[in-house]
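Extended Data, record ATP-binding protein
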Amino acid sequence: MALVVAQEVPTSSTMAVPHGPSGVRVARRRMRDELRACGAPDTVIDDATLILSELLSNACRHARPLHEEAADPDGTGGGKPVDTVRASWRRDVRGEVTIAVTDGGGPTRPLPAKPSVTARGGRGLAIITALARDWGVRSEPDTPTDQPPGVTVWAVLRPESSFSGRVAASLGDFGDGLDGEFDLASVEELK
């Protein structure tokens, strides 16, 4: 009974992570654990984790960090500023997951690229476009006047349209129909 109640209650989190690769790992782990605890399907968790990774990686690669005040050891604040990026996610009562990353902005706005086949990067927003129902960019109006405006990139993932769920369903079409297992003989018949 408690599991049913947990699935009906929206869940959300916001966390500041270091502006760099270590922050990506920390945020991915926390989001995965929290979505699993609230009953999100594994296919949604996988897609949400990939989207969060892409958004955080893009923020660390292309944008300035946010300068947030670190807490002193006694927890009172007043520590020196640290470079962070803010990650947040929310799962609503319908099961949609909204993922957002806020950074200190950059010289350009995030736009999908068309990288060459041999390019080492440039595919992040194309991946997000393929996985998410919708995504976008917004300026943060509450940025201090002595800093460039912060930017939030967000994406919404619908549970019934997760990419990994669509792939699994399409592979099930090749199965024997009993348990959804993949049947290589069915693929051979298509040749």
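Summary. The CA atoms of residues 31 and 107 lie 29 Å apart.
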